[in-house]
Write a structure and sequence with these properties.
- Helices cover 35% and strands 15% of the residues.
- By secondary structure, it is α/β, with parallel strands linked by helices.
- It has one domain: Uracil-DNA glycosylase-like domain (Uracil-DNA Glycosylase, subunit E).
- Strand 8 and strand 9 form a beta hairpin.
- It is globular.
- The chain starts with a strand and ends with a helix.
- The chain binds iron/sulfur cluster.
- Iron/sulfur cluster (SF4) binds next to helix 3.
Length: 243
């Protein structure tokens, strides 16, 4: 795949992976009277480098920020929730089992990886310690809002015709609607900001749903969404050629 980090996610701190013992009791967003060891947060900051971002507190416990990856002008952008444990360590989105499931789903849907840019709504891994493990924690709305700054830059830079929202957090970020409900729109095509938005499940749900039937249904829905995204992207491209 001809791919490139659009944002300099690799030009960042060379910190070792954070561990549960790195966690502090500091609040997620540090108020004015926060303890001295609270992470620095500059909500109005407008950084040019992802690695410098302090718009929310998630930078403080993550190993590195994880930017999007894919062709510069991919017609399809897939947006997930946030980097997971492996992504946090490797600095790339959708590596590991979720990435493999997406690769399989893309192949089954007949969509080429070269047509897809992959990113997350939130660029730092949010986690909480459980023993020696770092357990995923869903980003708060204020963190989704803060990180929309980067998603907007990716959308402006890549200019996709179609956005595939992988899960509820991505859907809220893309639609800029904190009340958006995934279940109400899975299988539909929405329009937002002059682009098609195809909502579907996050690949982690297709991997971890408690029963096999639900996992299969979720996977089939992801394949259907990607197929729909591919069709829409091709249709729009041919319309543009004819104009
Ligand atoms: S999660 Fe997003 S907004 Fe928050 S510090 Fe990281 S890059 Fe910045």
């Amino acid at each position: 795949m001809c791919s490139a980090h659009i944002f300099d996610a690799n030009v960042m701190s060379t910190r070792k992976p954070a561990t549960p013992s790195d966690a502090t009791d500091a609040p997620a967003d540090a108020p004015a009277d926060a303890p001295a060891d609270a992470p620095a947060v500059e909500r109005e900051q407008q950084p040019t480098r992802l690695g410098d971002c302090r718009r929310c507190a998630l930078w403080s416990k993550a190993t590195q920020a994880v930017g999007g990856i894919g062709p510069k002008h991919a017609p399809i952008m897939m947006v997930g929730e946030q980097p997971g444990d492996k992504e946090d360590q490797q600095g790339k989105p959708f590596v590991g089992p979720a990435g493999q499931l997406l690769d399989d789903a893309l192949q089954e849907a007949g969509v080429a990886r070269r047509d897809v840019y992959v990113t997350n709504a939130v660029k730092h891994f949010k986690w909480e310690p459980r023993g020696k493990r770092r357990m995923h924690k869903t980003p708060a709305q204020r963190e989704i809002d803060a990180c929309r700054y980067w998603l907007e830059r990716e959308l402006a830079s890549v200019g996709p015709r179609v956005i595939v929202a992988l899960g509820a957090t991505a859907l809220k970020a893309i639609l800029e609607d904190r009340a958006a409900r995934l279940q109400a729109v899975v299988g539909k095509v929405l329009e937002h900001g002059g682009r098609h938005v195809v909502p579907t499940y996050h690949p982690s749900f297709a991997l971890r749903a408690p029963d096999e039937a639900t996992r299969q249904r979720a996977y089939a829905a992801i394949v259907a969404a990607l197929r729909k995204a591919g069709t829409l992207a091709q249709r729009d491209a041919s319309r543009e050629r004819d104009e």
